[in-house]
Amino acid sequence: MLVMAATVGFAAMAVVGVASMQQQRQAMDQLWLVERARAAARAGLAWGRWRATRAPVAQCQPATTLTLSGTLSAWRVTVRCSVTGSHIEGAATPTSYRLEATGCNAASCPGATGPGYAEAVEVDWALRP
Predict the structure, then answer these.
(1) Model pLDDT, residue 21
(2) Helix/strand/coil for 47
(3) Interacting residues of 41 by C-beta distance below 8 A, sequence separation 6+
(4) Nearest-CA neighbor of 114 among 106, 102, 103, 124?
(5) What is the DSSP string of 71-125?
């Protein structure tokens, strides 16, 4: 009888252990997805910053969705840009921009939430001399 109780106890502990490991695995998978979404958002910020400050002519679109390549090919990023102002600095009139990039693993960002969906938003400001 004691052996049977011990076997049932060990079996119950094994079931709880497996369930706990599965939950930890799901949490780690979701964290990994969020980090990929952050990488997509950072790539979108770099793209938007270049277009606003380094392109031959400043290009600040209200919203542009990009499909990424390489290891981020399953990810999308929507980059929003707005002019926040300009001021006179000697002979120059620099313009400032607010950039917001939303990276996600859906057809467009932000996407439909659900299991396996990840999204991250990064914000930056840029100045074109």
Answers:
(1) 66
(2) helix
(3) 77, 101, 102, 103, 120, 121, 122
(4) 106
(5) GGTT-EEEEEEEEEEE--BTTB--EEEEEEEEEESSSSSS----TT--EEEEEEE
Report pTM: 0.77
pLDDT in tens, 25-68: 777 888 999 999 999 999 999 999 999 999 888 899 999 999 99
Using omega within 30 degrees of 0 as the cis cutoff, is the peptide bond preceding 129 cis? no
Contact between 100 and 121 under an 8 Å Cβ cutoff? The reply is yes
- Of 4 and 38, which is predicted with more confidence? 38
Kindly report, residue by residue over 74-114, the tens digit of the pLDDT: 999 999 999 999 988 888 899 999 999 999 999 888 888 88
